[in-house]
Amino acid sequence: MRPKTASGMKHSEIKQMREWNAFHLSGFFAFILGWALIIWSFWQVWLRFRVSGIEGFFYSLANLQRFGLAFTAFIVGWILLSGLFINQPNEARVLTFFGRYVGTIKGGGFHWTNPWAGKRRISLRLRNFHSQVMKVNDLEGNPIEIGAVVVWRVIDTARASFDVENYEKFVDIQAETAIRALASHYPYDAPDGGESLLHNPDDVGEALKDELHKRLEPAGVDVTEARISHLAYAPEIAQAMLRRQQAQAVIAARQKIVEGAVGMVKMALQQLSDEGIVTLNEERKALMVNNLLVALVSETEVQPTLSTGG
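Below the sequence we write its predicted structure tokens.
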């Protein structure tokens, strides 16, 4: 039995962002080229000052042209150096330029991109959400305590950045809401063998994972695992429910004992009749059945009684 809960969101009404790769270059290439341009620009200026001197430097058109070229090289080199950054493994940078999303750079390493673009760091590593122990009502209306562990990761950085206000807080709230909804669709215990929170943890965890996938998909989050970490009756009914469980266990055990005892008595009577050991009338059969059932079903040791015929 899977809960038919809805995330309460009409995804089709929300224009979702789509992640794509941003333009970037190797950071080592940009680093070497940037420093080369800066060093070359200073060398050109120093060389012209050395040849023309300070007084004659600004009176030569060739010197001014060379100075302009050196200044341009310096600016380009500075741009190359200021656009460098390092991504750690399983980390991404979301780039924005003048309020527009211009792509995402994934993968660890030394990179270069537009230095004027905003760079938001987002981790792509697996994360754990451990919910608080919450008091909810199960399918039968019994108050229970439940908690869960959810393992999740960001798979779409554009959605995580722009489709929700705070994707980490969004995960926390949606996970707790899904856990509460899940608990109300299963009984705590099902003595008749049906699905329950207590006896079907794998199925319940899979149902929770499916529900969280629907809820967190707009935020670009994928749930890799979900499982119940705490499950108990609420303290105010724990003793009463324990007594009920014990009574149900005693009844089930008694039923098995009676079924076994009846089978043994039937086998004994059939064997006595088939082998002709003794012939019993209906009254003697009833007495024998009574004695055997008492001996087999009784919880205390039965004392044998011998009839002397007197």
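The two ends are 67 Å apart (CA to CA).
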